[in-house]
Structure formats: structure tokens, C-alpha cells
Amino acid sequence: MSLTFKTLGRGRRVAAGSLIAVTALTLSACQNGTDSASKSSSAAAPATSSANGAPSAGGSAQSAGNGARPSGVAKPSAGSAGVPNASKANPSGMTDPDRCTAANMSLHMGRTDIGAGNIRVPLVFTNKGKKACSLRGFPGVSLIQRDGSSVGTPASREGGAGGSVRLQPGQSAHAVLHTVNEGVSDIPCWKNSQIVFVYPPGSKESMTTGSSGLRVCGGTFTVTTVESGVPS
């Protein structure tokens, strides 16, 4: 009986020892796994921040807070608010090979039409080339001074886009500039302009002509799409 009791007691002690060892190994593995996961998360954090555009170490956060311009963002040029950008002025303008360009056209202001508080002036494009060309869409138009400084903001679009206008050599098309008389609105008038700065529809090259002192009032300055001919 005594021998059997001692053998069983020893077996229980061995089993208990084994259970303790297994538990210790399990706890160690869990702890190591937690540490590894924590280290992996810490290592991955900078990459995630960088991908999201957050400042990296080394003072970038302070630079961003001081209004630093992100890389790849162009610095606005002086007076750009009042002059249309060539790439944005005529997104609906035609890009056909036979499109009329600034190089093969002349530009001038037509006769001013004043009535019922409105002022409308045709902006006339004439094909001065030796072959036919086409125009379609809105020109980009702004008013400037002789020193190049802008007057107000570029003309907004008025009316529908219209169709294509085919110009034989010597033929003309026009778009209409529109503003209102002083006193029609409480919005102050702009100062008098001296030059009309124009991107023909679809063109990245500009043209200019005298504005005849055109003065925009009432905050109204629009341009229509090009139409065939010249108003009488």
C-alpha cells in the first residue's frame, strides 16, 4: 500500500510539473506574439501615415502648419484671378485639325448696342488665312489695362454652346459681350478697361484688341458662344 501510494504521488507530481511547464510555454508564446504584433504595428505606422499624406518625422508637420505649399501644386501668378487660363477657358471648344487659331484670325470689337439698361458688344473673329477653318464654343475673355493688370474677373458664359461655324477666308463670326448700365444695380462698376484679352474657342494662344473703354457694371460680365456673321 505504501509503495503504491508513493508511486501515485510521484506520478501526480510529474504530471503537475509538466502542466506548469506547458502553461509557462503558452504564456511565453502569447506574450511574444503580442510583442511581435505591437512591434509590427509600430513599424507599419510611419508607412501608413506617409500614404495618407501626414507629415513625416523631421519637422514636416511644422512646415505644413506654416502654410507650406504641397509639392506639385503650382504657385498662382500675379493677376491670374482676372485672366482666363488657356487650359480651362474653353473645355468645350473644338480641337479639330481645321479649327481657326489665333495665328490665322484677326479680332476686333463691333458696334456697341445699348438698350433697356443692357450693353452688348460683339467680339468679331475674322478668318485671315488662305483656307477655311471652323470655330465652336465659348471664347475665354477678360479685360485688362495696358500694363497687363486685370480688371475684374473673366467673363462667365451666357446661353447654350451652339454649333460649329465654318469660316471661309475673309468671313467672320462673333461672340457677344454683355454688361449693364451704371445704376442698374447697387454693385459698383469696375474701372475702365483698355484691352480685351481673348482665347478663341479651343485655343491655347491668346489674342487682344482695344476695348474702347468698356466698363463692366452691376457685376454682370458674360460672353456668348460664337455665331456666324457680324451684327449690323
UniProtKB/TrEMBL annotation:
Keywords: Signal. Residues 33-101 are annotated as: Disordered. Residues 100-226 form the DUF4232 domain. InterPro entries: DUF4232. Residues 1-29 form the signal peptide. PROSITE patterns: PROKAR_LIPOPROTEIN. It comes from the Bacteria. Residues 36-68 have a biased composition (Low complexity). It holds the Pfam family DUF4232. This is DUF4232 domain-containing protein. It comes from Streptomyces lunalinharesii.
